[in-house]
Amino acid sequence: MNSQPEPRILFSREEIEAAVKRLAAEIRQDYLGKCPVLVGILKGSFMFMADLVRLLDLPLEVEFVRLSSYGGGTESSGKVRVLQGLASPIKGRDVLVIEDIVDTGLTTRFLLDYLRRKKPATTKLCALTDKPSRRQTPVVIDYLGFTVPNKFIVGYGIDWNEKFRNLPDICILE
Ligand code: IMP
Ligand code: MG
């Protein structure tokens, strides 16, 4: 396994914890009196979702969708497909999408279009990380954890070839 790239910490678990707390406070404030549906994009958002919802003192529901984006390498194909769609209707609901990383923006753009066809009352986006240097389509991020440089990142749910999701810190792979 000596060809395996080495992860180097970019944001520590303590910095992540502080960011998730800040995001939860912002989201809670904006959704007071509502019951949002949080839609996580699998698999990358699973850890972020688990930490975030525990800090959200609100009635809410959790859903996941599974999309195909990266075939396995580090470049987005730009072709997105729904592998597993929403299990319950979101018509008239306040939907908050939970993403691990917005890179080219193509995956997020696709998902927001897919969700809006189901006529939710509102759709907003919460992203743990944003790599704005690679954007190919404009995406509004309503709640953002971290802006990251144009490097490949892993950890805290984010993978490289399905590996490194279990790292507790957000790392750069080099
Ligand atoms: P986009 O469609 O290019 O915005 O890519 C979004 C998806 O690509 C994310 O949800 C990730 O799964 C994956 N991705 C993009 N950049 C990275 C990265 O630096 N590390 C790991 N996965 C990434
Ligand atoms: Mg991925």
Structure in words:
This protein is of the alpha/beta class and 174 residues long. It has 3 helices and 9 strands. The protein has helices at residues 13-30, 46-55, 106-116; strands spanning 7-11, 37-42, 61-68, 81-84, 94-102, 122-130, 143-147, 153-154, 170-173. The strands form 2 sheets. The protein has a 6-stranded mixed sheet, sandwiched between helices. It has a 3-stranded antiparallel sheet with strand order 1-9-8, covered by helices on one side. β5, α3 and β6 form a beta-alpha-beta unit. The protein is globular, with a radius of gyration of 16 Å. The two termini are 15 Å apart. 32% of the residues are buried. The model has no long low-confidence stretch (mean pLDDT 93). The structure holds inosinic acid and magnesium ion. Inosinic acid (IMP) binds at residues 41, 44, 69-70, 76, 99-108, 131, 152-154, 158.
Key descriptive features of the protein:
174 residues, alpha/beta, six-stranded mixed sheet, three-stranded antiparallel sheet, globular, binds inosinic acid, binds magnesium ion
Task: Describe, in short, the structure shown.
With 174 residues, the chain is α/β, with parallel strands linked by helices.
